[in-house]
Design brief:
- Helix 1 packs parallel to helix 3, helix 2 packs antiparallel against helix 3 and helix 5 packs antiparallel against helix 8.
- Helices cover 47% and strands 11% of the residues.
- The chain folds into two domains: 60 residues; 217 residues, 3-Layer(aba) Sandwich (Rossmann fold).
- Strands 1-7-6-5-2-3-4 form a seven-stranded mixed sheet, sandwiched between helices.
- By secondary structure, the protein is α/β, with parallel strands linked by helices.
- It is globular.
- The longest helix is centred in the N-terminal third of the chain and has 23 residues.
């Protein structure tokens, strides 16, 4: 997915989001914003929005000296997710199709994105329970069941801390019959999940956890380490969580399912849905939507 002009205003909003969380003088923040504005002149619209976002956060972290400004919030949302775990697991286990319900739970969890959305006033528990009952704007569950029958191993690209509790529910269902390799970032970027987050929410009990070997926004193989590249390129079936992974991996011909909430107009338009819609998209069936 290519960067559009609307993405540039979003880049500044995300920079503002990060700088609000970093305790440095006002003058230093102005210096950083000016540096980002200068860098934007060289951003290529041919690159993905997620890659350009990565460049912005990399610059902010370097100039501010902050390595993980979202650390406390990541821990908070991990714990909030764990508090909801039993209730959500009961919803899944008591449903007519636990796997499909687990897919919807995982998609609902994609609201926990501190780079794009302000969810500080959101009643997360009520929101998640409500959103599970909303029909998916794109629902490729039929294709998913078909592709599951062809492989014994799934590569699962995780997204944000807190959200990974909802992924755990889906991974638990999948792990009953499949081997799951789940991927987190090696280094902090926004509120993306790291190895310590995966262990905190007990994902390692149901999946082998590996890292990208990098701190990129989104998990394209070319930005990862050698282990991740090899695992990714040999994957028979990929589940991709979140908008950044969609931006960086759509249209590249992978056997991949995208689970996400369309959080901005640009991504919604690319998907052919409305902003705020919930999506379960099979990459190879995307052209059938047009």
């Amino acid at each position: 997915m290519k960067t559009r002009w609307e993405c540039f205003t979003c880049f500044f909003r995300q920079a503002e989001s990060a700088l609000k969380r970093i305790n440095i003088p006002n003058e230093k923040k102005i210096e950083i914003i000016k540096a980002i504005a200068k860098d934007l002149e060289n951003f290529s619209p041919e690159d993905t929005p997620s890659y350009n976002t990565y460049l912005i956060f990399k610059k902010i972290y370097e100039l501010s000296g902050s390595t993980d400004p979202y650390f406390e919030e990541k821990k908070y949302y991990n714990q909030q997710g764990l508090k909801l775990y039993e209730a959500l697991k009961n919803i899944v286990d008591s449903s007519q199709d636990p796997l499909y319900t687990a897919v919807k739970v995982a998609i609902a969890g994609n609201v926990i994105d501190l780079g794009i959305l302000n969810i500080s006033k959101l009643n997360l528990g009520e929101y998640i329970k409500e959103i599970i009952n909303i029909p998916l704007a794109i629902d490729h569950y039929f294709y998913f069941k078909n592709e599951l029958s062809k492989t014994n191993e799934i590569l699962y690209l995780l997204d944000n801390a807190g959200e990974i509790v909802f992924d755990r529910i889906l991974i638990e269902e999948l792990s009953k019959e499949k081997k799951i390799i789940a991927v987190v970032n090696e280094y902090p970027i926004i509120n993306d999940a790291l190895m310590e987050d995966a262990i905190e929410v007990a994902l390692n009990k149901y999946a082998k956890i590996i890292t990208t070997g990098s701190g990129s926004v989104g998990k394209p193989p070319e930005l990862g380490g050698e282990e991740y590249k090899e695992v990714f390129n040999n994957a028979k079936l990929i589940i991709s969580k979140g908008q950044a992974n969609y931006e960086s991996l759509e249209g590249r011909g992978y056997n991949i399912f995208f689970l996400l909430k369309a959080k901005c107009e640009v991504v919604a338009e690319n998907l052919g849905v409305k902003e705020g819609d919930l999506v379960f998209l099979y990459e190879k069936a995307k052209n059938n939507l047009k």
